[in-house]
Amino acid sequence: MDVKIIPALQDNYMYLIVDGETKEAAVVDPVEPENVLAELKGKDVKLTKILTTHHHWDHGGGNNKLLKVHPELPVYGGDNRVEGLTTMVEDGDKLFIGNLEVECLHTPCHTKGHICYVVKPKNQSQAVFTGDTLFIAGCGRFFEGTANQMYDNLYKKLGSLPNDTRVFCGHEYTYANLKFASTVDPNNQAVATKLEWSEKMRAERQPTVPSTIGEEKETNPFMRVDTATIQTRSGSTDPIKTMAHIRKEKDNFKNKARESQSRGKKS
């Protein structure tokens, strides 16, 4: 399995997943399909599927444009709001990219129909494409769901994957997420080390994906809500209440950062 990271918009990621044996490929969230087509040009690779994590325009908004060039492509997703949807998938459904098995995980919360795609090559560590459910050191906002659902997503579904599972998320939010993590988990050396690394990658304009499930368990505060350090933020030993509390903290943290940037521009 080869995964090509294709940046899009301001901070999105699209992914081209290629089966090296059959040369069949699928694209995840092709919001800027012209860049995907440019990546395929001149290569012995056949695009056979569009995998959409959720219906938001910055993920599924390029589907119809890509279908104008490749009308034969099936579009997979877990929500009838997904642009160009042809094949609805549910939790546990399986499909194939050539010989690569793909398992669909329904992870409702950011949106009701959000799907993460776990790709399982035979002789490599597997990979999961998490859209806006799991970010490096963060998670998506709870637009259409609850803290209980996000806890289930991060602990019971994604958290149960092998620790060496590579995590390819939908946005380059790593630096900001680790800045927040360093405030709620200030004595976590793994967070400090990864924050320093992310600063370097940011300065060099390099992607910080992939992470791994094991790394996320060490550095992502939303996958550490069962620890005493994070629970002190909410004053509760209930991990779900803690999940809800630090999500609100993160929302305010982001808003304060934006206000600070705005004041800086005016001054």
Summarize the structure.
The protein has 267 residues and is of the alpha/beta class. The chain has helices spanning 33-40, 57-60, 63-69, 147-157, 174-184, 189-203, 213-219, 228-234, 239-266, and strands spanning 2-8, 12-18, 24-28, 46-51, 75-77, 87-88, 94-97, 100-106, 115-120, 127-131, 134-135, 138-139, 166-169, 211-212.
List keywords for this structure.
single chain, 267 residues, alpha/beta, six-stranded mixed β-sheet, 9 helices, 37% helix, globular, disordered C terminus
End-to-end CA span: 50 Å
Number of helices: 9
Instruction: Please outline the major beta sheet.
Output: 6 strands, mixed
Estimate the mean pLDDT confidence: 95
The gross shape turns out to be: globular
Tell me the structural class.
Answer: alpha/beta
Low-confidence stretches: 257-267
Write out the strand line-up for the largest beta sheet, numbering strands in chain order. Answer: 1-2-3-4-5-6
Order of SSEs: EEEHEHHEEEEEEEEHEHHEHHH
Q: How is the quaternary structure best described?
A: single chain
Range of strand content: 15-25%
Helicity range of the residues? 25-40%
Topology, number of strands: 14
Radius of gyration, whole Å: 18 Å
Written overview of the protein:
The chain has 267 residues and is of the alpha/beta class. The chain has helices at residues 33-40, 57-60, 63-69, 147-157, 174-184, 189-203, 213-219, 228-234, 239-266, and strands spanning 2-8, 12-18, 24-28, 46-51, 75-77, 87-88, 94-97, 100-106, 115-120, 127-131, 134-135, 138-139, 166-169, 211-212. Strand 1 and strand 2 form a beta hairpin. The longest helix has 28 residues, at 239-266. The chain is globular. The model is unreliable at 257-267 (pLDDT under 50).
